[in-house]
Amino acid sequence: MANHPTGQQTTSDYDRATPTNINTRPSARFCDLPPDILYRIASKLPPKEFARTSVLSTDWFRGCMRSACPRLTFDVVAMCKCEMEDLLYTHVWQFVSEVNGVLRKHHGKVVETLQVKINLEHSILAPHIDTWVGFAAISRTKNLVLDLKPIRFWEHDYRYVFPFQLFDRESISRLQHMRLSFVSLDPPSQFKGFPNLRKPHLQTVQVNRKDLEDVLSHCCILEWLCIDRCRLDDELTVDSPLPPSTLLES
Question: pLDDT tens-digit profile of 108-119?
Fold first, then answer.
């Protein structure tokens, strides 16, 4: 058997080599992209195209989109590690500062869910909540939760006034699920409702009968509705039929 110097290949070595197709494209997945690139891609998609991303790949929709479109949940009790009745002003302002800091990091990115839970007892928090809701409006948020109900909510007359003026037609149309607690609804006369709202939950919300009728009449694809402890002057009448899973609690 002939000896071959180290580093030299024989004809048989070339014969055994696996052929390489120079035209083969390297495999790449959306999940391999950096998170900031995913954010940028998702933020540029029109709403309809954004909804169609599920057909691209399972990895993209279930994996990448979870990181590209995060759920931001802020609970003052969890953040400050104390019970609601033990909250001090220092806790509240710590909460405000931390929320603002997180939202600054997500500026310009798509945020699927924004949930805020804090004991609203004074109107001094309203400007900060306005800022957070405004962030949701520009961040393509689909699920908005404002849980502002104090422990002894029946002792408080003040309600947070929902800032309809921060939403345009496009941002309003993105909202699909909305839970509002201890909020006042006073929609402007030109308001056309939430066209894609599927699951509204209103708890201790201050709203007159006519405004609520107008809002619900323009929600054409309701799947579920809960109205909990919202005082209405008279019976509720809407133009479109309410979903079978409608909960009305006094």
Answer: 888 999 999 998
